[in-house]
Design brief:
Elements: E1 7-12, H1 20-31, E2 36-41, H2 49-59, E3 68-72, E4 83-88, E5 91-96, H3 102-106, E6 112-115, H4 131-146, E7 155-156, E8 170-172, E9 175-183, E10 189-194, E11 205-210, E12 213-215, E13 230-234, E14 239-244, H5 249-253, E15 260-265
Helix pairs in contact: 1-4
């Protein structure tokens, strides 16, 4: 991509116990030694495409324009699912066609998507169980050198890629019915309710319910609640979050991704 520095950001479910992340980075650098590789996260829950899609949706734009996001959350590795390379919003994305890019399509971010079909862009020997290293990393390196999506294969329509089923937020009367989207390292519970989408007005928060737990306190920052007390707030990427001050809300409640969340709204007073 000319003389500009090339950033490649990794999003994987590999963890850090094995050498997978290191091998992935080595494969990228073998094809493009001048690339700067950074980790967005290697802690996506194993095989959780929904979490990967939500992470990319809320994080890609915090990187410099031109960054290549290499997303390797691939429960179908070795199958006939396609590898995609895409562009939009000033960024590039490489991922399996399994739903990882679907929220960017839903948000109308992606303007160009190509299906990778040219084997000359792959490693000489391809492991059936590590397409991230042997297929996607060489594609990332080639893209970093040229910025040309057409070299990899034919363009495809955004509506043709696989979409991941993120549960919809449904309003019935004065209640928002949603789900737990993901749980972070601190035990904070990110729900599927997005403030910036117009789904939720924080000034109308009454209380939230997860299982038999009721969360009455809505705050702007964690320290506004007593230590250990459950609270609700808007997280750093615009989702409604259930948390506890200096404690794990997920451990207190005992919830998992996919569990239902109900937010009761108060009615706006009229003059």
């Amino acid at each position: 991509m000319g003389n500009q520095p090339t950033f490649i950001a990794l999003t994987t479910d590999f963890g850090l116990q094995a050498a997978y992340v290191g091998q992935l980075k080595g494969a990228v650098l073998s094809g493009c030694p001048t690339a700067t590789i950074v980790d967005l996260t290697n802690a996506i829950p194993p095989w959780n495409v929904v979490a990967a899609a939500a992470t990319i949706r809320t994080s890609y734009h915090f990187f410099p324009s031109g960054t290549i996001h290499l997303i390797v959350v691939d429960p179908g590795v070795g199958s006939e699912r396609a590898i995609l390379v895409a562009a939009g919003g000033g960024y590039f994305f490489i991922a399996p066609d399994n739903g990882c890019l679907s929220l960017l399509v839903a948000d109308q971010i992606l303007t160009s998507i190509h299906r990778v079909e040219h084997p000359a862009r792959f490693a000489p020997a391809i492991s059936a169980t590590f397409h991230g290293r042997d297929l996607m990393a060489p594609v990332a390196a080639a893209l970093a050198r040229t910025g040309d999506l057409g070299q990899f294969g034919p363009a495809i329509a955004p509506e043709s890629i696989r979409m991941t089923p993120v549960p919809a937020v449904v309003r019935i009367d004065d209640c928002l019915h949603a789900h737990v989207l993901r749980i972070d390292h601190f035990g904070n519970i990110q729900t599927t309710i997005r403030v910036d989408s117009g789904q939720f007005d924080p000034t109308l928060f009454g209380f939230a319910e997860i299982d038999s737990w009721r969360i009455n306190r809505f705050v702007q920052t964690y320290h506004k609640a007593p230590v250990g007390e459950l609270l609700a707030l808007v997280d750093s990427v615009g989702y409604l979050e259930i948390a506890a001050n200096q404690a794990s809300a997920a451990a207190l409640i005992g919830c998992q991704p996919g569990d239902p969340v109900t937010v009761h709204l108060v009615r706006r007073k009229t003059a």
